What does this fold into?
Amino acid sequence: MPDQGPLPLDMSRDLPGPLASDGPVIIITNRKSGRNSRDRQAVETAAQVLGGEIVSFQGGKGLLEAIREVKARNPSLVIAAGGDGTAMAVADAFLGSAVAYGVLPLGTFNYFARGLGLSEDPGEAARQLAGGRVVERRVAQVNGQVFLNNASVGIYPSILKVRETVYRRWGRRRIMAHWSVVKTFLRFRKPMRVRITMDGDGGRYRTALVFVARSAFQLERFGLEGVQAIREGGFAVLLVNARTRMELFSRVFKLALGTVQEGVDYDLFAAEDLLLEVDGKSRVLLAYDGEKRRVAAPLRFGMSEGSLRLVMPCALADAAAENGRVVEKTEEE
It folds into this structure.
């Protein structure tokens, strides 16, 4: 199903035109953001600009409860105020509904919001949303789970698992995040053996990481190829070439310097759908937009049948309409 062109937002609340309902505008935000005066002010500014109200949560279960509360109130517009994980969870909940959806970037990376052309300043981003337009956009899914930026199997999900343990013991410090990478690499024994079927064609590979990307912005941020595959509506599938610990360290070092090379450090494939099987595994650890969980294998990747009614800044929404598809901002733009 092709992506639709921009639809007008609701003019009745300082927004530019009618939404699908007369329901409230609700901003879902992590209560921890209230401890940061900049973030708290950004959320309050967004509520004022959008004529909305704030629903706060704390923790993963709190987010799910907040989403259930908001859905029961039949909002016309819901804003996910947080990082990529919050944006993903709220998008998953409202995919295929008539509710318009926007993102207010308050996280560390905010690849999804930045790819939409939203300012990293949350106050300015709120004003962009207020003057934005709605675009019908399909999103990526793996075994039915929505992801907005990437999903992966292999060394990266293992890093996230180790990082949680390190954080619990030593606190959430940047040096501890780096240590979790080193600790995971030191435990590395050998690459996975996987079978990947892409658009009907299957092949077997050995790799330390299968990285399935949907964010052109994120790829360009790290100097990786695959932007065109994403812009054509598919996935960029990257397989990391590393068979030893030293090769892993080398790949990460080159990634930090922006000198990784396709065909040397990683192999790149473009696919509209794929099936991933890991030898000897009936369940695998999956990372998606910074979250992780163990899921049943094989993993099936594809684009959603339903659409997300995504609020985008006018300039990018107009470009989407002109091109007949949804485009994503990249760093060069």
